[in-house]
Amino acid sequence: MAAKARTSRRTGAAAGVLLTPFFVLFTAVTVVPIGYAVWLSLFTEKQSGLGFDGAESVFSGLDNYTAALGDRAFRDGFWILLGYCAVYIPLMVGGALALALLLDSGLARARRFFQLALFLPHAVPGIIAALIWVYLYTPGLSPVVRAMDSGGIGFSFFSPDGALPSVVNIALWEWLGYNMVIFYAALQAIDRSVLEAATVDGAGAWRTAFSIKVPLVRASLGMVALFTVIGSLQLFTEPLILNQGSGSAVTSTWTPNMYAYTAAFARNDYGLAAAAAVLLALTAALLSFAVTRLTTRKGARA
Amino acid sequence: MTSPATTGSTTTPTGAEPTARTASDSRTSATRRSTSRTSTTRTSTIRTKATQAAPSRWLSKAAVNGVLLLSALYTLFPLLWLVTAATKDTGGLLTGDALSFKGFDLGHNLSELASYNDGVYLRWYLNSLLYAGGGALVCALISVAAGYAFDKYDFRGKEKLFAVVLLGVLVPSTALALPMYLLASRAGLVNTYWSVLLPVLVNPFGVYLSRVFSAAHIPDEALEAARIDGASELRAFWSIGLRMVMPGFVTVFLFQFTAIWNNFFLPLVMLSDQKLFPLSLGLYAWNSNTHAEPSFYPLVVTGSLLAVLPLVVAFVALQRHWKAGLAAGSVK
Amino acid sequence: MSRSWTRTTAAVSVVTALALLTGCGGDDDSSSDAGRGTADKPVTLTFWAWQKGSKDVVDAFNASHKNIRVDFEEIPSGNAGGYAKISNAVKAGNGPDLVAVEYPMLPEFVSQGALQDIGPHLTDEVRKKFLPQAVDLTTLGGKSWAVPFDAAPQTYFYRKDFFEKNRIEVPRTWAEFRTAAEKAKKADPKARIATFMPDDPTTFEAMAWQAGAQWFKAEGDTWKVNTSDAATTKVADYWQGLIDDRLVQTAVSFSPEWTAALKDGSTVGYLGASWGAGVLKSTLPDQSGKWGIAPVPTWDGRPASGMLGGSTWAVTKGSRKAAAAVEFATWMSTTEEGVRARIAPGTSSAFPADVALRPAAKKAFDAGFYGGQDIYRLFDEAGASINPRWSWGPTTGTTNTTLKDQLGKVSGGSVTVRGAVRAAHDATVAELKKRGLKVEG
């Protein structure tokens, strides 16, 4: 008994030492900034006269929140995000899963090469991926656009209609292989006797894929969906590059993240920026919570 | 990066998550081993079947490989473009003909890159190595320490505390970057190495992962033996735990390194001094300059190619590691 | 209890957290040299700008001055991120001493509190040297906020060879401009005589300015915002027509797309400003001798011009070296050495706001690219015709960001130019109100 108490005091101290660095930093870079953002969002800089005599920070309650929510540009950002998710998530999850199934079908050759080739874009920083694709979107420079033109497909990536597809494409390029590898690994881990039984039962490749393999990798599907949703909410780098000087119709407030950035750095309204960031974080938290609940319920006892 | 699976530019939950997702344990590798064994049998079964319907099988095979080939073309084409474009001079870049080697000027581009603005590109490169290497190293250490403590010790409120960590995984990192900037500017830390380095030391996902790895790789008996030998708890962690959990350490390091190397939003808001820029931000700044000065185009493109190289080489060389990392996350 | 208490606590808690790991301190050279500096103890200034030739000017200054040393950093142009970088650094307390700010953004920076009043260091004698319009635009609320550098009357650049070959007359009015655009397109279906730059609201504003609009007017302590006047509407509808009929190229200013079209000769004109002469010259070296410059077309054929951009040098709030900064800025703007050092290397065609320096500027600029045309005489006349009634408001950041975002959608047809202006108007008024200012409009 005595020995045990001593041990637990001892281990308690050790646990404290090992956990402290993480939690100190975690507090400093997560909890405190969020708290500070909430605090800042309650103040507005007010000026007097014609606005050239400096400003003072005044408590303004929820004014910044109503200002953000009342701003069409901010609300549009959420709609765009929704549209983005509606296009991107099915394409990403479906595409990655389809490719993984093909790779796992027993018909594919050079599987190592394909895995590597599809995964490689993940090694490219988002900003560089965006820079590359902007060139490939630019009329007059891009071999892709030229090929499309001569093939009779006159699609302008920079037009308002092209904004969403052009961002989706960059994201897809960056993450398709990454998620494909996850699915492929999950497929590979399926107990082969199950598949053999199905083959013996006369199930064709399609049926095996959709009625046996896919249900067995449901857990991975849920995880990929969750992280894709969280990632989508952060959409920033690619549209920023498209916005700045490419000629694309992507605006400076295209996503809520960009709205917050523009509020802080182009409009110098920290209160508004803080309010927008808080609203975004809140949305993200709610959404991830919802997706987690959904997938764990579905995936439970899978 | 932004997009899907985190890696979001900034900080915390970044990178690692894939691995995590559930990160299995040592069972994973066992499963995989048996998998590869059975797959041979499976192929042979299919082969027997195939002889019955040879033409249609040949067709399916062509279709499957055709689709895969097309998608590989899709992922590799932009990289190929980057390679040819990096060899061009300004004129060659702006007159199209992207995939030829017309206007070949690689040597000049490289020397420009090395000499422009007193070799600031090299400085960015070193900064990136410092941010990514140093940051990932410390982050992995902190994560492993915390994960180990969560796994091996019992204390009051442990699971509640762990729930906080899991919650941290779900906060999108770019939503945090701006608040961090506001705070850092209040604290006078904006535009310092620390403003970029400190936030990337934290990765809740790494802690989660480390806990799983610790459970799988460090048997309690080993620690018990150390205790009986009179080693202190911290010594047991340092000399036994840390060594045994090395695979987890490497995984966290690898993913955090990638995340930091690709980080953009955080340095963008935090840094204004060129000398502190990482590559991503430096290239962005140059790209902004191209508007007034087209001669920056070759610098941006060649600089991008060199910035991509280390990770491409690492991913090609370390195929086994990242595949295992992603696999660990996929199997529940 | 209140706010400052909590803020401090928040800040302190982080600082302590960080102090555990850092131990770093700001190592700003705080040698409290507020004065002008001497040869023994020179003042070191930091200076951020993107204007062409700035590095050459700094080198020349450093070579000829012992009391002040200037450290120069080239930053992206204002709208491409330079302004964000400046205000970011100033807010963080580590801004440079002297920065470049274009006239449109000056009131925004002043109103943010990012700059300091340089009145005490700027003598009347110096002030009198500048074009009065430039002085007006840098005097806000009765104080001087910047040293004007150049005036930027709008001008039209065109490919002489193309116009001559196809017998198109250089347009003097906007009606002729449209005719010329149609002729050019008929001669070569790919040819466009100008580019609509959706990312650059200041070009549109310059044309509204030329037409007599007055978007911002200060009356007492009230801002009167008016963008639905006849002049603005006329300009908006005119450009809507050109865009709808595909008579102009649509491309971002200085983008690869724009450059590529100029290089392959499908875009044969450019509505720019005096400083654009240097840009074209350095962007298209192989088209030397083929370009000409004309005054910007007007509505009634009588000379009139708006100003497109134009730069000033301003001292940031935190700088304790204002005297030295103004001395250096004045040297750049008002001495022959300064102007020559900038222009002689060939990339800058700045048109000094200091009237007396124009002969020096003309001498320094090699106009061979324009077939030896006397372009500074043309700038001179255009500069004199700048409509003096225009002023900028304190929310240019919001106004121009909104206008830019909306103009980006015009070519797709989902927004009209008029609609874009309207949206910018609404955003501007909302922003002024949010800041607690009195607004009408």
UniProtKB/TrEMBL annotation, chain A:
Q: Which SUPFAM superfamilies match?
A: MetI-like (SSF161098)
Membrane topology summary: Multi-pass membrane protein
Signal peptide start and end residues: none
Indicate the principal place this protein occupies in or around the cell: membrane
Residues passing through the membrane, by range: 12-39, 78-101, 113-136, 216-236, 270-291
Pfam families associated with the record: BPD_transp_1
What region holds the ABC transmembrane type-1 domain?
Answer: 76-291
- CDD domains from the xrefs? TM_PBP2 (cd06261)
Subcellular locations according to the entry: Cell membrane
UniProt keyword annotation of Ribosomal protein present: no
Matching entries from InterPro entries are given as: MetI-like (IPR000515), MetI-like_sf (IPR035906), UgpAE/MalFG_permease (IPR050809)
| Source superkingdom | Bacteria
The UniProt keywords, alphabetically, are: Cell membrane, Membrane, Transmembrane, Transmembrane helix, Transport
Family, according to the entry, reads as follows: Belongs to the binding-protein-dependent transport system permease family.
Q: What is this protein called?
A: Sugar ABC transporter permease
From TrEMBL, chain C:
Xref: Pfam families = SBP_bac_1
| Alphabetized Gene3D superfamilies for the sequence | Periplasmic binding protein-like II
Q: Does the keyword DNA-binding apply?
A: no
SUPFAM superfamilies assigned: Periplasmic binding protein-like II
Q: Which InterPro entries match?
A: Bact_solute-bd_prot1, SBP
Q: Which CDD domains match?
A: PBP2_TMBP_like (cd13585)
In the UniProt record, does the keyword Cell membrane occur?
Answer: yes
Q: Which UniProt keywords apply?
A: Cell membrane, Lipoprotein, Membrane, Palmitate, Signal
What protein name is recorded for this chain?
A: Sugar ABC transporter substrate-binding protein
